[in-house]
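Feature request, filed as a ticket because there's no other form

It would be nice if the structure record came with a short human-readable summary line next to the tokens. Right now we just get the raw output. Example of a typical job, pasted below so the devs can see what we mean:
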Amino acid sequence: MINYLSWDSLFFGVSIYELKNEDVIKVHLDTEVNNLGSGDLIQCKINIENLKSIEKLTKYGFSIEDSGVTYEMTVDNKILKRSDFRVELAVEKDRKVIQKIAQDAFSGTRFKDSYFGVNSANKIYKHWVSAAIKGVHDDCCLIKKNKDELIIGFATVKKVDNYIKIGLIAVDNNYKRKGIAKELMKLVEVYAVQNNVDRIMVTTQCNNNAAKSLYRSMGYSIFSEFYWLYFKV
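Raw output as currently delivered:
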């Protein structure tokens, strides 16, 4: 009933298992946990409305370690008429600059050292950026430059079925509160229309009020809210 996550386990050097939202009620936790080794991790992403499942997990000893919200929006294809939004993709020479922006932006994530090992958050986001630039996992990495052609923000995106999923989005610390994040979101909209998709989805942490305010101001509505729960054997 729990699934071994081979890629995640190899990457972090920790045996990681996933318990799916729909399996929580029917799973026999004692049986599953008895088959694991000391230090193994079970993670579960669960809708916040699934109260019975959350109660079952927390009573067993799972800890709520993070909460998130996913937003969605339908794109107006008129955005293609805006000449000031030119989509530019990151290339390998941009990798270190983008990784530095990511390192500064994603500090309080669900990838906590106590579960995933030392410096786990920086490790996963550096890899995520590198992979997106190569078109692995995410399809590409969109970038925003200043007048001096220096990268000041980025967004990784992936086409999933009938929508575009934003993986990571971040702005250089020196350009915060200057409208750059909004411009990046507009670039994603252009990218979506260019790829014949009119729906965009993006996820952020529930405590990221700046991101939530941005998405709401751009016409995004809540699609789902969830918790991340962990159990370490």
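Something like this underneath would help us a lot:
The longest strand covers residues 63-74.
The mean pLDDT is 93.
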